[in-house]
Amino acid sequence: MKTDKTELFEKTPVTRAVAALVVPTVISQIVTVIYNMADTFFIGQVGDPNQVAVASLCLPLFLLTTGLANLFGIGGASLVSRSLGLGDRKRARSTSAFCIWTSAAAALLYGAAVFALRGAVLPAVGADESTYGFCESYLLWTLAVGAVPTVLNAALAHLVRAEGYSGKQASEWLSAACLTSPLTRCSSSASKCKSPARPLPRCFQTLSQRCILSF
Predict the structure, then answer these.
(1) Which end of the chain has fewer CB atoms within 10 angstroms, the N or the C?
(2) Distance separating alpha carbons of residues 116 and 126, to the nearest angstrom
């Protein structure tokens, strides 16, 4: 028996299928932009320019997690969608599993490596005596602790969309962004960049998307 998502890949006209997948994806990307702006905004409420600078100094290191997520997520999503279109669900499942586990392993290694080599990495991105301590704390939460949920969050988003659940993926993205706001606000109230405000909503969103893939 064919499901609605199978019909989307096999028999729905291309224009309608693309629209059904693209619109929620665009909405989720807009939410991501707002989410990142809110992150910087709340850090700015601390009133310390050094802490605001940390978000920019560590941005190149954090963006590499996006590259890891896209490496496995976009490549895997392409194969998953083509396999579903051919009716080969076994291949789609094995591809999803491979992408999930390899992206998690790569993120874990990357986060551990960057934090272990922070003494050389942070000066290379421009950290000085006034920002080094804050950068170190920021890396602890966003990469050492948060690299795996961050990479899985984006990789799973690609895989969920590949299965035709763009609407659900966008709703999970929005819920995580809403959860982030009060956590980031608490972080700024503490006047230190030492709160797990970023990893926690990523974990919540990752678990939600993993549940969608399971069914």
Answers:
(1) N
(2) 17
How many DSSP H helices and E strands does the chain contain? Answer: 10, 0
**How far apart are alpha carbons 109 and 104 in whole angstroms?**
9
Burial class (CB in 10 A: 0-12, 13-18, 19+), 149: buried
Q: Which two tokens stand for residue 11?
A: 């028999």
Q: What is the DSSP string of 123-142?
A: HHTT--TTTHHHHHHHHIII
Cβ-count burial 107-139 (b if 16+ within 10 Å, e if not): beebbeebbeebeebbeeeebeeebbbbbbbbb
Phi, psi of 11 (to 5 degrees): -125, -15
Alpha-carbon distance of 120 to 108, in angstroms, equals 19
Q: Which of 146, 130, 133, 157 is closest to 61 using CA atoms?
A: 146
Distance (Å, whole) CA 148 – CA 130: 29
One digit per residue, the tens of pLDDT, for the chain of length 215 reads 445 556 666 677 777 777 777 777 777 677 767 766 766 777 777 777 888 888 888 888 988 998 898 889 888 888 888 887 788 888 888 998 999 999 999 999 999 999 999 999 999 999 998 889 888 988 888 888 888 888 888 888 888 877 767 666 566 666 666 666 565 555 554 444 444 445 444 554 445 444 444 44
